[in-house]
């Protein structure tokens, strides 16, 4: 299993500049007090706060990530942000294929694949989101949906590339609903993902790829959700908006 867990804050379309900076200051204080050696913490603010948050977290182990990017390098793509731009703001990570991107912005597995390949090419670490919606969950289609998502999203990703990919299993029915998957459900999908990676790559990739869980993680359920060996951390939405709650989740991961 990967030696470090990863806890990422996905702020979505929340927080302006001042709020983002305040949050970064609070988290920084926490890091000054405690040395976290076995959890990687990533903040994913909106694009407009990336630079400011980057400046705040300079010199700390906190990492910066973006919530999306475009797959082209440069040019006439009004409103889009390139991998190079993200890197120039200090990003190391980028969330790709979040279910909200799929649902509201028509992102397909094929588009996500182009983004994953571009991110890797430019030296960014993608956090690739997969997960079934409620209907698919009820119809017991979880494994086939995820199989397809992984096959296409990771198509042409080399063994070298996959070493820089984190997979986030986020059941859509659990996102922002207050209804998290049980640790057992998360574990079983994570195990399925590892089997899939073994088929696509090999045993080492299957064991070493970081697979995190997302969907209504809270300070109350985090410890339990991070208990299965195969769950290597979390992608946190709502509960990452308050520093105090987010810190409790980091603690839950770290004390596992
Ligand atoms: P949530 O969101 O924690 O608010 O459910 C998770 C996510 O969308 O990444």
Task: Tell me what you see in this structure.
- The chain has 256 residues and is an alpha/beta fold.
- It has one domain (5-254): Aldolase class I (TIM Barrel).
- The chain has helices at residues 17-33, 47-57, 83-88, 99-104, 109-121, 134-138, 142-153, 159-162, 183-200, 203-208, 222-225, 243-254; strands at residues 5-10, 39-44, 63-66, 93-96, 125-130, 166-169, 210-214, 233-236.
- Strands 1-2-3-4-5-6-7-8 form an 8-stranded parallel beta barrel, surrounded by 5 helices.
- β7, α11 and β8 form a beta-alpha-beta unit.
- It is globular and about 45 Å long.
- It starts with a strand and ends with a helix.
- 2-phosphoglycolic acid binds at residues 10, 170, 175-176, 214-217, 235-239.
Assembly state: single chain
Written as H for each helix and E for each strand, in order along the chain, the element string is: EHEHEHEHHEHHHEHHEHEH
Report the bound ligands by name, code or SMILES.
2-phosphoglycolic acid
What fold name stands as the CATH topology? TIM Barrel
Level-2 CATH architecture: Alpha-Beta Barrel
What's the total helix number?
Answer: 12
Residue-averaged pLDDT, rounded? 96
Provide the β-strand percentage band. Answer: 15-25%
The helix content is 40-55%
Shape: globular
- Name the CATH superfamily classification: Aldolase class I
Radius of gyration over all CA atoms, rounded:
17 Å
Order of strands, main sheet, comes to 1-2-3-4-5-6-7-8
Please summarize the sheet with the most strands: 8 strands, parallel, barrel
N→C terminal distance:
14 Å
Category from helices, strands and their pairing: alpha/beta
């Amino acid at each position: 299993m990967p030696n470090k867990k990863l806890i990422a804050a996905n702020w979505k379309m929340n927080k302006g500049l001042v709020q983002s900076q305040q949050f970064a200051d609070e988290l920084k204080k926490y890091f000054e007090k405690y040395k976290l050696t076995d959890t990687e913490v990533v903040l994913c603010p909106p694009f407009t706060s990336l630079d400011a948050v980057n400046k705040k977290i300079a010199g700390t182990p906190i990492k910066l990530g973006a919530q999306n990017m475009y797959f082209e390098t440069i040019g006439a793509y009004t409103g889009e942000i390139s991998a190079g731009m993200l890197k120039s703001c200090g990003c190391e990570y980028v969330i790709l294929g979040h279910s909200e991107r799929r649902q509201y912005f028509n992102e397909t597995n094929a588009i996500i694949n182009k983004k994953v390949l571009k991110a890797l090419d430019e030296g960014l670490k993608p956090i690739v989101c997969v997960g079934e919606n409620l209907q698919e969950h009820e119809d017991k289609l979880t494994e086939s949906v995820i199989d397809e998502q992984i096959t296409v999203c990771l198509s042409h990703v080399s063994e070298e590339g996959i070493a820089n990919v984190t997979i986030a299993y986020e059941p859509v029915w659990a996102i922002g609903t207050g209804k998290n998957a049980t640790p057992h459900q998360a574990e079983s999908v994570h195990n399925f993902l590892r089997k899939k990676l073994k088929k696509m790559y090999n045993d080492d990739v299957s064991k070493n790829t970081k697979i995190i869980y997302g969907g209504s993680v809270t300070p109350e359920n985090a410890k339990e959700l991070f208990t299965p060996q195969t769950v290597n951390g979390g992608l946190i939405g709502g509960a990452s908006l308050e520093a105090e709650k987010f810190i409790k989740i980091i603690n839950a991961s770290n004390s596992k």
